[in-house]
Amino acid sequence: MLKSVVHSFLRSLGVRAVRAHTLDGVEARIRVLEVRNAALAEQTEAQQRQIQQHLSRADQREAKLAELTARLADQTARLTREQDARAAALELLAQTRAVVARVATPPDPAAAADTVCDAGHWTRLGVAEDAAGRTDVAIAHYARAMQLIHRYHPAASRLAALAPQFLRAADAHAAAGRPAEAKRALVRAVELDPADPTARARLAAALDDGRHFDLTKICYVYHDPARGKAIYQEAFLRAAEYVAGGGVVGEFFEFGVLGGFTARLQCELIRDLRMWREVHLFDSFEGLPAYTSPADRDGYDTGVRNVWADPMRFPDDFVRDNLGGPVDAHIFARLGEVIGPDRVFVYRGFFSETLARLPATKAALVHIDCDLYSSTREVFDALAGRDMFQDGCVILFDDYNCFRANPAFGERRAFAEFLAGQSRYTASPFYTYGANGAAFLLHDTTVGAGL
Ligand SMILES: C[S@@+](CC[C@H](N)C(=O)[O-])C[C@H]1O[C@@H](n2cnc3c(N)ncnc32)[C@H](O)[C@@H]1O
Q: Do the beta carbons of residue 288 and residue 371 sit within 8 Å?
């Protein structure tokens, strides 16, 4: 067959006679070539198979590597969060110990000098401390002057003049690889001069590190978070402007913190209005206590509809995955990025335990957001019992109109009982906000009596 094919091929070329043995040789050669071709094809196929295998193994390795890299990034982020939370928790613990010690120590008679209502006096003290290099003490004195007279220029200008020193400190910390200290110096620089856009931009950049989950920016308690924020911002702004403008010296207190949303708004106002107050925040961080009073057990929102049955407690896995540590430490850390952490106090636990640790200071603004009659009663009893109220103190009730605004229930009832149960303080309505909020001004009847 092969021979006849070769024959006809040669004829087509015009070759008429070909010797038989020549054809045999050609045929044999072709066979050899065919065998070699087949072997080569086999070899090529085997090599292609090998290359395919290598490629797919490389793909697998690459996928594995990508997976491991992602897992490593995840672990690093979680570790960083945990380290942050640990540092915040340790700081919070130290602060709690200091508060406990302060509460246990009787007030120092020398502290009576604290009552001087002269902004110039505190500014002069600040200048002396400043000259002696005790910047922190100087800031405290200037801050006191600012509480007495809002935006008091001699103190405000000295505070602003200290800001560059903290910006330089931030640079030094950053250069030495101490980001936490650098961040803290930037927070203080912004506090000292909140109108300085450079300090604000630098702080914003330091906080924008891509792993910054912030519970305090989330509004959980309003159906429309943006509207909720606008309503609360305006309500707190009004109260803060009144406190600042009226020179009501004292601190801010919040009872009912949850994730720290309204606490953050207050801290931002304190900073931006240059109010220089402390913020004391109380919450169980475990949700509402058991309802012990019939007013809570049988109220519309608690007993009847039980709208807060969901225990207002963040689930453990949410806390672990997003906060890296306890909620109170997270809130303390995040709010310490708005005003200095020395001005933020977080008290974890039910009021029945934590109210014993109230500081020996006056309250300028009290935000009651603890929903229940019994919790609100506890707060009023404790603040009154420690003489923390004062003339002009502003009280905001987040839930004044809850329980269908019926005076037999909730914060409304607790407030009415407090007023009725003593004779020193009366109150007048200030304003209402949102659907349920109401603000009141307290009046000390012993002030101005008989004038
Ligand atoms: C509505 S939430 C507070 C909302 C918060 N202000 C915000 O900005 O989201 C009410 C909080 O009050 C707290 N609470 C109520 N009664 C309490 C009590 N007796 N002791 C401690 N916490 C209490 C609850 O744990 C809950 O977190």
A: yes
Element (H, E) at 117: none
Q: How far apart are CA 441 and CA 290, in angstroms?
A: 31
Q: How many domains does the chain divide into?
A: 3
Which atom of ligand 1 sits closest to the CA of residue 367? 6
Per residue in 67-110, pLDDT (tens digit) is 888 888 777 777 777 777 777 777 777 777 766 666 665 545 44
Pairing of the two strands 279-283 and 363-368? unpaired
Residues 435, 297: one domain? yes
Residues 371, 299: Cα–Cα separation, whole Å: 11
Residues contacting residue 225 through CB under 8 Å, at least 6 positions apart: 218, 219
Verify that 400 and 428 share a domain, yes or no: yes
Asked whether residue 76 is assigned to any structural domain, the reply reads no
To test the ligand 1 pocket, which listed residue (223, 328, 371, 397) has its Cβ within 8 A of the most ligand atoms? 371
Three-state DSSP at 364 gives: strand
- Higher pLDDT, residue 13 or 38: 38
Q: Are residues 179 and 260 in the same domain?
A: no
Domain, as residue range, for 124: 117-212
Residue 87 inside a domain? The answer is: no
pTM for this model (two decimals): 0.81
